[in-house]
Structures are given as C-alpha cells and as structure tokens.
Amino acid sequence: MIRREVTGIIVVLILGTLLLQGCSYMAKVPVIKDLPYVTKPDEESLAAEKTLDAKTIAVMPVDVKAGNRDAARMIRENLIEELYFKGYSKIPMEMVDAALADFRKRDGGASGTTTPPQVIGSMLGVDAVMYTTLVDATTTYKYVYAPVNVAAVFELKSVSRGETIWRYESKAVDRDYGVTKNSLELGTTKIFESLVQEVVKKAMENLPDGPGIK
Predict the structure, then answer these.
(1) How many domains does the chain have?
(2) What are 156's strand-pairing partners?
(3) Fewest beta carbons within 10 Å, which of 22, 90, 127, 174?
(4) Is residue 61 part of a domain?
(5) 188 near 176, Cβ under 8 Å?
C-alpha cells in the first residue's frame, strides 16, 4: 500500500516537472504578430495604379463662363485629340452634337452642360462623359504688353453611376509685347491658341491612360 502511494507521488512530481518545463519553453518562443514579408501598399502606389472604368468618352460642348465660342471650340477640339492620344476611342463631336440636338427636341431645350451622362450614354453607348467649363479667357492690353490668361475645369462623369470619377482645373498664363495695339492683338491671338493647348495638355497629363495605351 505504501509502495503504491509513493509511486503515485513520484508520477505526479514527474508530470508537474514536465508541465513547468513546457510552459517555460513556450514563454521563450516569440509571438509574431506581423510577418516581415507582408507589406501594405501606400497611397502613392495606389494612386499610380488608379485606372478609370471607361473605354469611350463623349466630349460635351464647352460651357463658357468667360471668353467666347471660338475659345470653347478650340478647347473641345484639342480635348478630343488629346483623349485619343491617351488611349481612348475617338467620338466625333458631330455625333455628340446630333445626339444633343435630338434630346433637345424631346426634352425642350436642355443644354449640353445640363444633359445627364446617362442620357448621352444611352444614346451613344459611351462609358463616360466629359464636361468642360471655360472659366477664364482674358487678354488685358497695357501700354506695351498684354497678359493672357486661360483657365478651364474638366469633369468626367460615369454613365453607369452618374457621378464624377475625375476632375481637374487647369490654368495657363503668358504675355505678349508690342509697340502698337494691332501688333499686340496679333501676338496675343497666337499666344491664346498655345495657351488653350497647354491648358488641355496639363489636364490630360493628370488623366489616367485609356485602354489603348499598353
């Protein structure tokens, strides 16, 4: 009887010793919370990989807040060309204007700037619609020089969601020098054309490439 009790005590002591050793070993093992090879993408990398869910873009007539119709036409023509070079399918503005004219007949005078993107999308089958507002197109004639300012806001709206998916405000400034006002007017006309191209180009540089760019 005594021998059995002694044997039981020994077994308990051995098990206790093994348990304590196991706990001590587990305490020494470091707990890895974050694996070193798991990296999280930063905001810059996410922005660099950003793409637009649009393959075709219809360019609406420019809404003129400042300047004239000639300036608006120049911006729209340059915008269509730059979108094509960015990899987007070219949608002729004549096709867009024809769709707008048809919609005006049915809607009773809706302008291009107020036409919802869903309407244009359903009529032309495009993925997005570009709305442009010319907010500055001024030339100030001084004594021997004339500063020229051009600014426009570009806003791309999704046809499927009806919301803005890209927006950019672009500005360009230059000046011309001359002895007479006639020489200044001639020089500022050429400068204005180059500024329009610069304004559109700046905006398109900030637009993600289209599917035509590999």
Answers:
(1) 1
(2) 130, 166
(3) 22
(4) yes
(5) yes
